[in-house]
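Example: NADP-dependent oxidoreductase.
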Amino acid sequence: MRKINFAEFGGPEVLRLVEAEEPHAGPGRIRVAVRAAGVNPVDWRIREGQVLGAHPVELPAGVGLDAAGVVDEVGDGVEGVEVGDRVFGEGADTYAEFAVLSAWARMPEGLTFEEAAGYPSVVETALRVIREVGVEAGQTLLVSGASGGVGSAVLQIARGRGITVIGTAGAANQDYLRGLGALATTYDEGWVERVRHLGRVDAALDLAGSGVIPELVELTGDPRKVVSIADLGAPRLGVRFSGVAGSVPDALAEAVDLISRGRLHIPVEKSYALTDAAAAHTDSRAGHARGRRVLVV
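Written out as structure tokens, the predicted fold is:
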């Protein structure tokens, strides 16, 4: 089968399309014929060799956590899913023609493979950081870097829970944030004062890792009310870095419910061929996304 891997840490140029042995579903796992794979910032962070304790790497390594596809192997002890089912979920080395998933759910009706591939890690992360930052109904959450996949999910989930959301993003994405129910502002010079004019901030999330942790602490008045998923230096400022996933099956179940009820929609900004994985990483690292990027296999 064809698969993307890398034999050394480095820039996107280390990614290679190779022929590899097919993986197989062990106990408690399923294998899918991958139709699309989600492109997440954690993918290029791992490729660069950033120290992420939750994702130890042994070279050469494959790439990718999220996928949507058709079940073609079911491991021992697995119930409730059959060969031929359309599923989306999380596993390992999903930038490939076949991948083994450790958590999955049936795709909601009406969702394409490309759309479905963009949800698993994104929704799990969004649910986790909302929980960890401790924001409640009636309060205001500031989201720095709000237009990407996680930000798009956070805005919709938080608004559905009665939380006011202030989102920062580039000028081109202001209307997009407003369409998701956020109070929007750009992150260029003077953004802190503009946020203050929009209202009191009870909690804040750093989703972009753009060096704004001190300002988020200033706006909330308490480093314990700030969580980052993108700045590994956050703990030095008393801010929690959230990098270890919670229950992915629970997150997928909630994603299915929200999508099915029309409460969650994350657009696919751009799709790439498997051979263009390096370009997908380059674009993901550059930021400024509006929704998700995915590979079509």
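The chain has a mean pLDDT of 95.
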